[in-house]
Amino acid sequence: MAPLHKANGNQQAAITAGQQFIGPPVGSSLFAAAGALPFGINACSLLLSASLLVTMPRGKGQNREPQSMRAAIATGLVWLRRHRVMRTLAMLLGVNSFSGQMANAILVLIATDQLGVSAGGYGLLLAAAAVGSVFGGVVNAYIIRRIGSLPTLITSLTLNIVAFAGVALSPSAIALGCFLAVNGFATTMWNVVTTTMRQQLVPAGILGSVTSVYKLLGWGLIPLGTLTGGLIAHSFGIRTSYAFAATIRAIVLVAVLPILVSGMRATPIWTKR
Fold it and tell me: What total of structural domains would you count in the chain?
């Protein structure tokens, strides 16, 4: 399993580095040179990406008749409904995405209004989260090899809870940055373990359908989380959103832990390190 975990971790690290370290400063420099320049380069990059996809060789099973979108969604739903562990992880992702967005939507107010962080300082806080995420991508294979996939998954979820509670109680910008780094690290570990699990357990022919439905269930509550976070912050205080998010995640983790432990231990590939 280690090579696949390492590949997914490296991909997560590369995505984070590109989106949060390389992209923003390069985009700002291009925009300063000419307002339309970053948009034009982005359009060209999309065209290049599309042309590269067209040249990719067709894999096994790609010569069959294409499914309609409705049929593909139904295929993914049926498989996911029948697989208890993956279904549980999809619902857990939904809860985590909801609570995470409920909290993170208020992060800028905690940093600037309560801790007096400047605009530049807020950028450094986001960079701290990115550093944690990149580090998680780099070391994930080593951690999984040492303690196993199931303990890594549970540890990442626990660290997320600790990080959210820590943000709610952070007395300074430095403490806030540390907890954001922990959250970035744990989130990447979760992504690596669950992505690898899908790739190993879902039949190749329906991996795209299952992944699409999985992410729809997991990310569909993000807009509602943003709205809920604003309402909670308005009614109970800015930091309360993070406290609520940590509590929700803790309760749900305790509820699904027996399912994860029994289901993943029963799967041979997940009893190995």
Answer: 1
Listing DSSP states for 34-67 in one string gives: -TTHHHHHHHHHHHHHHHHHHTSPP-TTTTSPPP
The residue type at 137: G
Question: Which residue numbers in the chain have pLDDT < 70?
Answer: 1-2, 20-21, 25, 28, 58-66, 266-273
Tokens read off for 124:
């450094």
Determine the structural domain holding residue 260 and report its residue range: 2-17+69-270
Tell me, what's the pLDDT at 273? 47
Residue for token digits 């995420």?
Answer: 133
Q: Give the CATH number, domain containing residue 236.
A: 1.20.1250.20
Handedness of CA 156, 157, 159, 160 (dihedral sign): positive
Q: Indicate the residue type of 200.
A: Q
191 Cβ partners below 8 Å, 6+ apart?
8, 12
